[in-house]
Amino acid sequence: MKLMRLASALLAVALLAACSSTPTDKEPAELTSFDAEKRVKEAWSYSIGDGQGNAYYRITPAIDGEEIIIASTDGKVAVLNKTSGKRVWKESYDLRISGGVGVASAMIFVGTADGEVVALDRITGDIVWRKAVNSEVLGAPASDGRVVVVQTYAGDIMGLNIENGEQLWVYNTQPPRLTLRGTSSPVIIRDTAMVGLASGRLAAFNVDTGALLWEQRISAPQGSTEIERLADVDGRLLISSDRRSVIATGYQGNVMAVNIANGRPLWSKEASSYVGPSTALGYVFVALADGSVTAFEDDGQGVRWSQTVLARRELTEPAAFKGTVAVGDFDGYLHFLSQLDGRLVARTRVDSDGLRAPMLVDDKLLYVYGNSGELVALKLQDR
After folding, report:
1. First and final CA of the chain: distance in angstroms?
2. Which position among 66, 154, 295, 337 has the lowest Cβ density within 10 Å, counted as fewest Cβ atoms?
3. What is the Cα Rg of the chain in Å?
4. In the β-sheet with 62-64, what is the strand arrangement from edge to edge?
5. Mind listing the domains of the chain with CATH numbers?
6. pLDDT tens-digit profile of 9-27?
7. CA neighbours within 13 Å on the CB side: how many for 317?
8. Is residue 293 within 8 Å of residue 307, measured between CB atoms?
9. DSSP labels for 129-147?
10. pLDDT tens, position by position, 73-111
């Protein structure tokens, strides 16, 4: 069953463009010329290991205070100063890292392709504990400082004791036989852990007991074939600034804002996406599976703009940065769109191996982790 899901998932990824294209219109859109209004400048870069490897991972860095933590699929982990890129420490482990990075309470958490959750000491890099789980971990573990919550590719949501990795609870979600290659990373708000599921649902659990608090359908499986019925909620969840609602996206489904307290939908718009949204200026920005980028009003009342010039370029999760929406693509290009109307204002190539992981924004820098393993900190300036 696990091997079938892995093979099916890789097939599903290969067919993403075909799912949303016509038979004669499947090639990625060619890059178009435009008058650049902004200049992209590199502040620093750092290269680590094999990066994302060849298994379609989305290992994502994490910012903690004045430092940024990165990991590569061949078992390397490094802590860097987020402003200068100067290395604080770097260690190599006998691990096939597939999910990360999580950080809480002076610990770093990663998941592995061999079905382990590993906790590292935040200061020294020593392994504090490692816990075997039932399958590979593709998302970053999350913690509130007491419990570590993780989702496995087999569909288990687990709560682990942060001190020793002991299992506190487990909830099996029984995923469909065919899913996309990826899982949502848990997000914890107060005593609630929220996770997007391969079934197209968003689920909330009590972080201490694992009790199911609510479920909300984001994407409803439809169609006669398993590919047509793909409905994964794989992208990162977006928490509102008041921490009262969560916004989730579903493949062949919707972008939906949900009340964290009770799971009731606040608004919903049709949108097929396998990456998470971002927000700024009263808009929710979503990179759709067909390669278009859309700005939804954050009260669900309508659409501000939609940009289709990047069709079928396998876009990353958008990042709201200095008045722009940044999206990376399969060919390693980073595109900057105006938050106001979606026009292209800048472009640069970051990694010829492509971009897949979500980007991070902190103050004046945009952090982009390329598939080859290079982490680049970028500035955006007026021309």
Report:
1. 54
2. 66
3. 19
4. 62-64, 67-71, 76-81, 87-92
5. 32-50+275-382 (2.130.10.10), 126-235+237-270 (2.130.10.10)
6. 444 444 443 444 333 468 9
7. 27
8. yes
9. EEEE-SS---S--EESSSE
10. 999 999 999 999 999 999 999 999 999 999 998 999 999
